[in-house]
Amino acid sequence: MTRITTASSDADILGVLHETADAVFGVLNANTDWGLSGKRATQYSVDLRADAAALEVLHAAGIAVMSEESGRTGEWNDDSIIVVMDPLDGSTNASRRVPWYATALAAVDSSGHRASLVANQFTNENRWTATRGGGAFHNGERIRPSKCERLSDAVVGISGIPKKHPGWAQFRAMGAAALDICLVAQGTLDAWVDMSSHGAWDYMASVHICIEAGVSVGELGSRDLIVTQHGERRSPVVAATPALFEQVRLIRELV
Description:
By secondary structure, the protein is α+β, with helices and mostly antiparallel strands. The chain has helices at residues 10-30, 45-60, 91-95, 177-185, 200-213, 242-249; strands spanning 64-67, 71-73, 82-89, 102-109, 112-120, 126-131, 136-138, 141-142, 155-159, 170-172, 191-194, 198-199, 216-219, 233-234, 236-239.
């Protein structure tokens, strides 16, 4: 396999991300053990096997990794790439065969997001991608957010539940943040908000896809959303328009 560095083309980087998602799909498609790993709460044994399959591909390409399951591995310096990944986002959905779980991969260099991929792994047929300055795509078709500007008109994706109704038209809580956020990028949802906080592996790829699609993106505390340390947590907010973003951000005050 060709070694990936910052000098590599976007196409080559995305190629490795696709290969990584394919490797994880192979593990998930063949899996018959949906039991918990016993190593930490809510971690399934298949999470670890999916992680191992992804690491094999990424490390073979010379890519450093920061994974939910295995932490930070490999060497990351000025001429190298690190992939922030969740090999299986939505593990509980997967264990119950709810068709909404993903592999999320964000390739980052010293300047920030370089290329990202989110793959719905139920059928391995739906993938969202983005490259720096190159736009956002779903299965090769360019995507854009909705034009919704009022919370009262919005369908909002959420992780967690606010204590009282914030005034949205409707909400959806689907259990896989990486996929949920991509739906804002393509205009299916109008916004998404995290009621607590997430590790970077859950949102970094899909936030990049949103940025390239033209979505308004931010963090509750105005912190940088690009994180490569395993212990860091953030509260991302994404919305189709700047006006809607400001309204959605206020939802967190109801938590």
